Amino acid sequence: MIVSGLSLKTFAIIVGSAAALRAVQFCLDLRRLLRSIDYLPGYRTVFSSTTVFGNLLPRIPLLALGRAHSWRLKHAPFAERGLDIISAVSFWPKPVGNIYIADVQAIKDIIWSRGLFPKPLSQYAVLKVFGSNIVASEGDEWKRHHKVVARAFSERNNRLVWDATTQIMLELFDTVWIGKDEVVVDHAVDLTLQIGLFVIGAAGFGRHISWKDDAVIPPGHQLTFKDALLTTSHDLFIKLLVPRWAMGFTKRFRRARLESDELQRYLTEMIQERKGFQLKEDDEDLLSSLLAANNDENLWKDEVKLNDSELIGNIFILIIDETVSHSLAFALALLALYPDKQEELYQQIKRVLPDGRIPTYDDIPSLSYSSAVFNEALRMFPPVTNVPKSSAENTTFTITDVNGTQRTLRFTTTVRYSSTQSRSAIAA
Ligand SMILES: *[C@@H]1O[C@H](CO)[C@@H](O)[C@H](O)[C@H]1NC(C)=O
Ligand SMILES: *[C@@H]1O[C@H](CO)[C@@H](O)[C@H](O)[C@H]1NC(C)=O
Ligand SMILES: *[C@@H]1O[C@H](CO)[C@@H](O)[C@H](O)[C@H]1NC(C)=O
C-alpha cells in the first residue's frame, strides 16, 4: 500500500517511530508519577477505580480493582503491608496516582485542612442533578451552603428524628403488625427503606406518611408524595446515569423521570407553601428550619442567599441518603445471625425501660448496648468507605507502621487522596 507518495517502508518507519515515542513518553510519565507518590507500594492496574468505567468492571488482577473494593477488603490491604497508607496507580486513560489512607491522624489532618485538600468536584458532580448543595461544592459556594445547613441541622433535629421514628414504629406495630406473633420480612431493606423515608417525610417536611396504602393523589400530581419519595431514591441511579434527552426512550426511564419530576414538584410546592409564613428556626421540621435560616438577613451581608434550586439540592442530599436504611438492615441481619447478642440487647432494653414505657431521646446514653450493636454493624458493613479528596499543594505525611517505625512520605500535587475510614472504625 502506498500512502500519498510515501513508500510502505517510509510509512512503517513513521508509524514505528511514533509508537516508540509514545512508549518513551509513557515511561517518562509513569516514572514522574511514581516519583510524585514517593514510590509508595500498592495497587497497579490498567483502569482507574475512580472512573465510572473502572468502577463497573469486576475485579480482574492487573486490570481493575473491581466494584466496591474498599468495601470488600476493608482494612486488609493495609494490614497486609503493615502500613496505613497505600497507593493505587492506574494507566488508562492516563497515568493517575491515588493514595488510600487509613491512618486516623492523617485522615483528621486532611478533613480539617479544607483549603489544602479540596474535594475533586468532578467525582461529586452526579450529586448535583437536583441542584447545588453542601456535599457537591467547595470554596465560597460551600461556605454559603454550610452557613444555612449548619444552622438548620442542629442537636435539636436529632430529637425531632427520634420522636418521628418512635411514632412511625408505634404505628407499624399498631396497624400493619397488629395481632401477629411473628412477622416475616424477606428482604430487610424493603422495611428499613420505608422507615427511613417515613422519618424523612415527618422530620424533614412535616408530612405524616401512613403505612397503609390509603393516600389520595392530590390534584396536579400523578403520584402520591409517598410513592414519589419511595421510588425516586430507588430509581435514582437511572436519573444519575441516563442523560436527560434519553429519558423518554424506555418505559423504565420514563417512569424514573416521572418520579423525580413529581418529587421535585412536591418539594417546590412545600417551599412555596412555607413562603407565606413567618418561620422560626425551632419550627417542627427540617425544611422549615432550612428556610428560616436562609431567610435570616443577618446571615447574608454581601452574599446572595440560597435560591430554590439550591435549597432543593440540599434537601435531596438528605433524601437520597439511603445509608441509614441499609445500615439498619445490616444491624437486623447481624442480630438474626447472633441470637445470643440479640438476647443481651433485649435484656438491656428491658432493664432500662422496666415498665415498658416508650424510650425518649434522653434514654440514648443508657441504651449503650443498642449503640454498640449499631457501631459494630457500621464497622462490619460501612455504608461509606471512602471520602475522595485532592491535594492543592505538595504534602508530607508521617505515618507509624506496624513495627512502630515512623515513615515520612512526600507527595507532589498530581496525587489524589482517598481517606478510608475502616481503620478508624476498627480502632474505635
Ligand atoms: C515489621 O517487622 C517485621 C519483622 O522484622 C518485618 O518482616 C516486616 O517487613 C516489618 N514491616 C514493615 C511494614 O516494615
Ligand atoms: C440558583 O443558583 C445556581 C448556582 O448555584 C444557579 O446556577 C441557578 O441558575 C440559580 N437558579 C435560579 C432559579 O436563580
Ligand atoms: C512540588 O514539588 C515538586 C517536586 O519536588 C516541585 O518541582 C514543585 O515546585 C513543588 N510545588 C510547589 C507548589 O511547591
UniProtKB/TrEMBL annotation:
Q: Which PANTHER family match?
A: CYTOCHROME P450, CYTOCHROME P450 12A4, MITOCHONDRIAL-RELATED
Q: Which InterPro entries match?
A: Cyt_P450, Cyt_P450_sf, Cytochrome_P450_monoxygenase
Give the chief site where it resides: membrane
User: Which pathway is recorded for this entry?
Assistant: Secondary metabolite biosynthesis; terpenoid biosynthesis
Pfam families, per database record:
p450
The identity of this protein, by name, is: Cytochrome P450
Compartments, as annotated in UniProt: Membrane
Report TM segments.
Answer: none
Q: Which GO terms describe its molecular function?
A: heme binding; iron ion binding; monooxygenase activity; oxidoreductase activity, acting on paired donors, with incorporation or reduction of molecular oxygen
Keywords (A to Z) from UniProt: Heme, Iron, Membrane, Metal-binding, Monooxygenase, Oxidoreductase, Transmembrane, Transmembrane helix
Keyword Heme attached: yes
What Gene Ontology cellular component terms go with this record? Answer: membrane
Keyword Secreted applies: no
List cofactor names only: heme
Entry superkingdom: Eukaryota
The record's family statement is: Belongs to the cytochrome P450 family.
